[in-house]
Amino acid sequence: MAANQGQQRTRRRLSTGERREQLLSVGARLFSESPYDDVWIEQVAEIAGVSRGLLYHYFPTKRDFFAAVVERESARMLRMTAAVPGVPLREQLTAGLDAYLEYVSAHAHGYRAFHRADAAGDQAVRRVYRRALAAQERQILAALDADPEFGPLARRADVRLAVRGWLAFTTAVCLEWLRGSELTRAQVRELCARALLGVLTP
């Protein structure tokens, strides 16, 4: 009994940032496994070992909570695939897809949760998701614009539409890969790279 009390006294309290990250990690797992309407905020609190009151202190509503999960995953993806100035797009595409697939593999729950957002019935959540996709699209177009080979294409309407379609294609491929596709990571990377270069190269 005394030993247990000592362990409880020495257990480190999580900082505000650490607690928030813990809650978002739990949320990402639950939202990746179940539709938005089937996830209850009480589940998150119970799994995280906190009171509902504390969870609502960080996220006033379920909508706020799911939106934060989506924004967290979007920021991660954008950081991992950020363009490197001065590096040709063809090289960046390979490196960027490697980083992206590493993220998909390491954060599968978060990736699935992010892409479930568009199916959520809550329009506010869907707007957060669409803003995140638009940010990815802008990042790719900016990399195209800065590349001498592809720069002239970046402002064409058909290319902008093709990039948007490529993001949807890459998402579908990655979600299928997570379900247990026979393709290796290298094969998935090459498939996605060819799909984009195919619409950019005559």
In a few lines, what is going on in this structure?
This protein has 202 residues and is mostly helical. It is built from ten helices and no strands.
Overview of this structure, please?
The protein has 202 residues and is an all-alpha fold. It is 74% helix and 0% strand. It has helices spanning 2-10, 16-33, 41-48, 52-58, 62-80, 89-106, 108-116, 123-145, 157-178, 185-200. The longest helix has 23 residues, at 123-145. The relative contact order is 0.11.
Order of H and E elements: HHHHHHHHHH
Shape category: elongated
Q: How many distinct helices?
A: 10
Number of E-type strands: 0
**Unreliable runs:** 1-11
Q: Which structural class fits the helix and strand makeup? A: mainly alpha
Q: Strand content of the residues, in percent?
A: under 5%
Helix content: over 70%
The gyration radius over C-alpha positions equals 20 Å
Largest sheet: none
Distance between the termini: 74 Å
Average residue-wise pLDDT: 86
